[in-house]
């Protein structure tokens, strides 16, 4: 597998996701080691300094599944906001994979059946930081 792309997360997103992971029951928390590893290797920036081509929490992102050509547009949300049409939770494998990616970056992500899929970020149509919503 190729090495993982560099990722960038905002300090607020990092703090909130880490707090979310800390509240999970131990049996569930073990499922999110990959997300923790992503957070551990991320470059952390203040929300006001976040480049506008990076996927952050509450961003709306269009990405392509490189294996089947399918394009999806989803908003990356915290679990409380998941379940609404057009959203994906940060705790879902694809949500964890998208966080911190730049436009045109691709990443491999595991599916629940254990296979690997490749996704590429095509566009970010809304990013809270770029819109001036630094404390959403």
Q: Care to describe what's here?
A:
This protein is α/β, with parallel strands linked by helices and 136 residues long. The protein has one domain (8-126): Chitinase A, domain 3 (Roll), CATH 3.10.50. The protein contains 4 helices and 7 strands. The strands form 2 sheets. A 5-stranded mixed beta sheet has the order 5-4-3-7-6. A hairpin with a 5-residue loop joins β3 (60-65) and β4 (71-77). The longest helix is centred in the N-terminal third of the chain and has 13 residues, at 11-23. The N and C termini lie far apart (35 Å). 26% of the residues are buried.
- The class by helix and strand makeup works out as alpha/beta
User: What is the H/E string?
Assistant: EHHHEEEEHEE
User: Beta fraction of the residues?
Assistant: 25-35%
Overall morphology: globular
Mean pLDDT: 90
Q: Major sheet: order of its strands?
A: 5-4-3-7-6
Separation, N- and C-terminal Cα atoms: 35 Å
How many independent structural domains? 1
Compute the number of helices: 4
| Rg measurement, Å | 14 Å
Main sheet overview: 5 strands, mixed
CATH architecture: Roll
- The CATH superfamily appears as Transcription elongation factor, GreA/GreB, C-terminal domain
Total count of strands: 7
Helical content class: 10-25%
Topology:
Layout: E1 8-10, H1 11-23, H2 26-29, H3 33-41, E2 43-45, E3 60-65, E4 71-77, E5 87-89, H4 93-98, E6 106-110, E7 116-126
Parallel strand pairs: 1-2, 4-5
Antiparallel strand pairs: 3-4, 3-7, 6-7
